[in-house]
Amino acid sequence: MAQKPAIPKGTRDFSPAEMARRNYIFDTIREVFHLYGYHQIETPALENLSTLMGKYGEEGDKLLFKILNSGNYLAGVDPHLLNEESFVKLTSQISDKGLRYDLTVPFARFVVQHRNDIQMPFRRFQIQPVWRADRPQKGRYREFYQCDADVVGSDSLLNEVELLQLIDEVFRRLGIRITIKLNNRKVLAGIAEIIGAPDKMIDITVAIDKIDKIGLDKVNEELAERGLSEQSIKALTPILQISGTADERLAALSTLLADSETGTLGVAELREVIGHTAALGLDADLELDVSLARGLNYYTGSIIEVKARDFAIGSITGGGRYDNLTGVFGMPGLSGVGISFGADRIYDVMCGLDLFPAQLGAASTVMFVNFGADTIGAALAAVKAMRAAGIACELYPDAAKIKKQMTYANTSGIPFVAIIGTDEAAAGTVTLKNMVAGTQETIPVREAIALVKNH
Asked: Do residues 53 and 24 both lie within one domain?
């Protein structure tokens, strides 16, 4: 019996209708990237593991898809490693490549590798798939697309202000109401200092990054497991619960972090970004969230996360500033800031809220009915004329029954059906049927072209 075909968990096939919707998202994001002056690049799906490992923290490293070396990948492997089941050491010997986990680390590698060919500051965008060996669930996939925009070679906080405007513009065009959450890793470092746990900065950020998913009590339990004292946890809890307007939260943080130079700098950076953004105005809600940590270790300044206000799902966009990422590739001192749109989650939000345009799934605007050999020449000529005018159209390939051809057009969501029978062929006209309105008229081909283009 033949094996039933299947795809790996956490991956998906996309039908033509789904691809039309996905491309609507990609095209919208791409248009806004261009509007803000970003240049497109691409990087390989495969990266050397030496490029990827150690950039995402301990938990991120576990989620990297590693690829076996070609050929006899066990050649030269110490047999004791097989017997001892030492998977970490074994992996390093049988695999030296992996699928990219995100687009930011490959971008940092790209900048260093091509440093002599790019002009600083360098504004790039990238729309490509990434892979994570995560547990598949709603809104979380093992293969998914990211749409990234980054600026490197500039310390200016105006880059953060522009990225917040860019985020707002994308979701305004898509029709999704959002809340943009903002914080600063320097603030988190300052908090770690004042609660007496400066060496636990990473443990704190990894734990509190889960606060929306597991709640404060579970976060506190994890912090205890990670070695924070009861006194430190007790001091941290009220800080994570700071509330009020952005100005009120900034004032509270300013007082709390007065004795931390790093924390005070983080508050000043937040105040500048929020101040400029508020002056320009956003359709989105902008919220200063002290508990926002984003678990990736390479962030050093502003951190950004976007949530849909009308649909329950995880973050649909995130990002932040990283000052040290290119340093691990031999190019220290290059600051950057970037964001990443989660296209797959955005897709789920738009489907859930029914935000896609109605006629989006139709590949063609006009379908020509096929009446057979007597009129096929006139139909082909009209199809060519319409395509030359920029109208997407198709000729039904078989001289099937009219009902079957009309059903095809209707099911495919094609808004116009063009009919060229013997009378139309002789007169040089076409009968154009509007499938939405149910009306039709017989007119010259050039007038049909104008009518469709003006529709």
From this structure: yes
